[in-house]
Request: fold
Amino acid sequence: MAAEALLEVKNLVKHFPITQGIIFSKKVGAVQAVDDVSFTVNKGETLGLVGESGCGKSTTGRVILRLIEATSGEVRFEGRNILTLNAKEMRELRKDMQIIFQDPYASLNPRMTVGDIIAEPLKIHGLAKGKERQKRVQELLEVVGLASYHARRYPHEFSGGQRQRIGIARALAVRPKLIICDEPVSALDVSIQAQVINLLQDLQKEFGLTYLFIAHDLSVVKHISDRVAVMYLGKIVELADKYELFDNAQHPYTQALLSAIPVPDPHYKRERTILQGDVPSPINPPSGCRFHTRCPKVMDICKVQVPESVEVSPNHWVACHLVRK
Ligand code: SF4
Reply:
């Protein structure tokens, strides 16, 4: 049976204008944070979106939810282009699309009890009142592995992993279809990361959730993702099924990211590709292939021509002049 798309992102662009002058400010450039990005997330799957900091992955997540407005492109949720919805239509849709933020310390209001934090989306969307709302909060706390009496406590009384569980309970409160997990484990200790990832997987099975899982580290998305998209400086450079990507990466950037993952076997020596320099500025990205200033396999054509994304094998897309259709 063919997979059914829940979210379709088509040619999405987000440029932040740079202006100069105080009274008559004029546009002098743009930060090209997201540039012509397309991908699909199917119902019930997890798509990992990976890249170094500043590659545009978190901006992509925020533009999909319209926390930031897109410059152009389409975001289709269940077939509807949500970038054209008015404020009321968007408010109704928000309960289907939730986000879990990277920093569980900053994303919870320190003046609210945990019970009020989790109840807030239920209140905003008019989903439960009084005793029923309280009961729902208690159920949600238990679902994420906390206790119902935690509802009376404040965020500062919890550890980082527990706070992320509170963030997950808040996102689940409105029974969403899609959750954008924006680096949900990056701020946590490695042992706690595994617990939160396992919890997200259990919840996905129980509630039929679909995830867009954003991370800067391929080893984090390996466990949870069905497919993985690799992003570099505002563009998707490779997208494939998880096993295909880990066993047969074709793009030099993906290969470099994979070579950086530590191998637990001391007898196995993997050749490591060290990328030179930092990610260039998205204000004035390199011409042609944006990776050409750091690519160990750069050719003359790479400096002048943008590589098209081609399907090298079924559902494996690569944007690099080294690959052919
Ligand atoms: Fe490297 Fe050229 Fe491929 Fe870009 S297009 S990744 S510079 S080989």
The two ends are 26 Å apart (CA to CA). Residues 251-252, 289, 291-292, 295, 297-299, 302, 307, 320-322 surround iron/sulfur cluster (CB under 6 Å).
